[in-house]
Amino acid sequence: MLTVEQERDRSFNVCSSSFGDCTTPPIDSSRWNGAFYAQAVTGLLDGVDLTTGVRLEDNQRFGTYATYRLGVAYRLPTGTRVRATAGNAFREPSFFENYSTGFTTGNPDLKPEHSRSWEVGLEQSLAAGRASLSATFFDQRFLDMIDYNPNVPAGSPNYANVAAATANGVELGARYAPFGPVWAAASYTYLHTDITNPGFDSTSGALLAPGQPFVRRPKHSARLDVGYGLTGRGTVSLAATYVGERLDRIFPPFPAAPVRVPLPPYVRVDGAAQLDAVRPRHGAPGLALSVRVENLLDHAYEEVKSFPARRRTVFVGGELRFGRP
User: Fold this and answer.
1) Measured between alpha carbons, how far is 113 from 108 in angstroms, rounded to an integer?
2) Helices in 72-222 by DSSP H: which ranges?
3) Of 176, 201, 198, whose CA–CA distance to 187 is shortest?
């Protein structure tokens, strides 16, 4: 598969303060990106599957980067499935990090942020396939992370590739379909993150402070889903998501430094339903109706400090479906 895209950013800032005019020059930049992607799924031996994916990126600003994903899965006659994957990825700098002007100066020579990851998983089928248990161990390494340095000479770039971090943990899951259209699934994630190479700010309140976890990343999270199939005409489901305590930052009045503060845990309940109101037949389209309710119990919580999350939100939709002639 071959893709080509162009990104362009045009922005301007008009600003006035008690210190005078703070308007910054406009930004007008663009970059082309081409990519080639290939993936192959191969059965090597009886019960062994190999998945190989390769992507080659050619970016006008950052050069050529190759990423890959390798995976192998082994199925045992006992209903056990063992799998392992490894790969890498990158994140290109934003236009603001590259080209910002005025109070903040971008760095056009930034490299993309890189990551390497691997995971090993085990799945066990039970009760003649009506139930399953799974466990996955994962590890990630983040390199060349971009950080902001406010203490540079006027006109010098504020951004540089200086930081590194790790993230690892375990995911546990269970699924059970006791009979017919009823099913339930539960999952739990333990996540440990650590800044291994700090950014320019070494204080405890810094975004990339040494020995500190990522901000807004909970150590503990879980989810419970239950669903019911409506005799082939649709589904109804309910989900409860638990997000544990995590750290965020607040910014006291200048010149005080940012401070890390805890965000309290929360539980959010969502509901969804989908119904095939009219099925396609004799060349006429069918109609599927759907409704999704986020934060069903209208619970107040924050995903970002001092920014309340959305309260109860209802989405209603419809889809025309065409059958085979």
Assistant:
1) 14
2) 95-99
3) 176
How much is the CA Rg of the chain, to the nearest whole Å? 25
CA-CA-CA-CA torsion for 191, 243, 240, 176, nearest 10 degrees?
Answer: 10
Range scoring the smallest mean pLDDT among 20-24, 61-65, 100-104, 202-206: 20-24
pTM (2 d.p.): 0.86
> 100: burial class by Cβ within 10 Å (0-12, 13-18, 19+)?
buried
Give the integer Cα–Cα distance in Å for 209 and 218.
17
CA dist 114 and 192 (Å) reads: 19
State how far the Cα of 114 lies from the Cα of 207, in Å rounded to an integer.
Answer: 18
* CATH number for the domain whose boundaries are 42-272+300-313: 2.40.170.20
Beta-ladder partners of 70: 52, 86
Compute φ and ψ for 96, nearest 5 degrees: -65, -40
Can you tell me which residue has the tokens 């071959």?
A: 2
Give residues with Cβ within 8 angstroms of 174, minimum separation 6.
131, 132, 133, 134, 185, 186, 187
Tens digits of residue pLDDT in 172-221? 999 999 888 999 999 999 999 999 999 998 888 899 998 899 999 999 99
Nearest-angstrom CA–CA distance, 142 and 89: 9
Q: Peptide bond preceding 255: is omega within 30 degrees of 0, i.e. cis?
A: yes
Residues with Cβ within 8 Å of residue 19, at least 6 apart in sequence? none
Q: 115 in helix, strand or coil?
A: strand
Q: For residues 41 and 73, what is the distance between their CA atoms, to the nearest angstrom? A: 11
DSSP-derived pairing of the beta strands 286-294 and 266-278: antiparallel
Cα 80 to Cα 294: distance, rounded to the nearest angstrom: 36
* Beta pairing class for 131-148 and 182-197: unpaired
Q: For residue 114, which of 88, 94, 138, 93 has the smallest C-alpha distance?
A: 88
